[in-house]
Design brief:
The chain is mostly helical. The chain is built from six helices and no strands. Belongs to the C1D family.
Length: 141
């Protein structure tokens, strides 16, 4: 950064923030180029419906987030713009997709195996008749 030329149009104190912002914009640009290099149909054909929903939600959220930043750079308060409600709506759907994904990952309970496991783990006293028969057989020998 020391070799960069500092522009006199803005305060020196924010130079580092602006450099970081410029680097972030460059990274976003590279990611967008990567995403745009593959056609949407090709991408979606390779994914199951849940993954397709995730891609659509991330795309919509990213686009609306970028519009939020654009509004902020134009002096418009994005918190008072309908884009805020749209971001909240997309976030709700992202949470629903996350719940579905979590349910798929959750272990399934095999009720039969669980009941056999519990039944075999419990102690059962021997019937009284069986112990008398065993004792009679021992005393006669």
């Amino acid at each position: 950064m020391a070799s960069e030329e500092i522009n006199e149009d803005y305060p020196v104190e924010i130079h580092e923030y602006l450099s970081t912002f410029e680097n972030s914009i460059g990274a976003v640009d590279e990611m967008l180029k990567t995403m745009m290099s593959v056609s949407r149909n090709e991408l979606l054909q390779k994914l199951d419906p849940l993954e397709q929903a995730k891609v659509d939600l991330v795309s919509a959220y990213t686009l609306n987030s970028m519009f939020w930043v654009y509004l902020a750079t134009q002096g418009v308060n994005p918190k008072e713009h309908p884009v805020k409600q749209e971001l909240e709506r997309i976030r709700e759907y992202m949470n629903k997709v996350k719940e579905i994904t979590d349910k798929k990952k959750a272990g399934k309970l095999d009720k039969g195996a669980a009941s056999r496991f519990v039944k075999n783990a419990l102690w059962e006293p021997k019937p009284k008749d069986a112990s008398k028969v065993a004792n009679k057989g021992k005393s006669k020998s």
